[in-house]
Design brief:
By secondary structure, this protein is an alpha+beta fold. About 45% of the residues lie in helices and about 20% in strands.
Length: about 200
């Protein structure tokens, strides 16, 4: 990893991203010493421009950022660090310096695609044809997929297990649409339980 620290007076921008949700959490700056300390300790350390010194995120609050992955952009002058945040990241108390927790990943893309197929009433779409058969059929399909997942859980075929898990999630998203709920609403319930 050859980083061009010389392009901007020895400091380069560092984007911090939640390694699971991919939500951008904050932006900081590093010099070579901060990067080396981050790599060595596995906890994000920046160079604070206001304090004019190295600053480990969480050194006062305890809200450390544990490093999962470090990558460099194509111009070799910006770093992306994927982390596990210990708690809220922003000094204001928000989960992210860009607002509250708002994880969006592939499941949200899939949810949107399912919604589009249903809303467009595409006759060729399996998703729409299942949805059109009504809530009882959709719920029954979720039940079938859940049973199939339980059966595969008892065996040792990882591929079959993962495929059944994917089928269950897919049909669960159709059921959410049929009931008029969103994945975000279910996520809110889980987050509230976690508090």
């Amino acid at each position: 990893m050859k980083i061009k620290f010389d392009k901007s007076n020895g400091l380069i921008p560092v984007v911090i991203q939640d390694h699971i949700t991919l939500q951008v959490l904050m932006l900081g700056y590093m010099n070579e010493e901060a990067l080396e300390k981050t790599k060595k300790e596995g906890v994000v350390t920046f160079f604070s421009r206001s304090k004019n010194r190295l600053w480990t995120k969480g050194e006062e609050s305890g809200n450390f950022l544990t490093v999962k992955d470090i990558s460099l952009d194509c111009d070799q002058d910006t770093i992306l660090i994927k982390v596990i945040p210990r708690n809220v990241v922003c000094h204001t108390g928000s989960f992210s310096c860009f607002g509250n927790k708002d994880p969006k990943g592939f499941l949200y893309e899939l949810e949107e695609k399912i919604s589009q197929r249903i809303d467009s009433r595409s006759e060729e779409s399996y998703t729409y044809s299942l949805y059109q058969r009504g809530i009882n059929k959709v719920a029954q399909k979720v039940g079938e997929e859940a049973v199939e997942l339980v059966i595969e859980a008892k065996d040792n075929n990882a591929e079959l297990f993962k495929n059944e898990a994917a089928d269950l999630i897919y049909h669960f998203l159709i059921l959410l649409k049929a009931k008029g709920f969103t994945l975000e609403e279910i996520e809110d319930v889980l987050q509230n339980r976690n508090r």
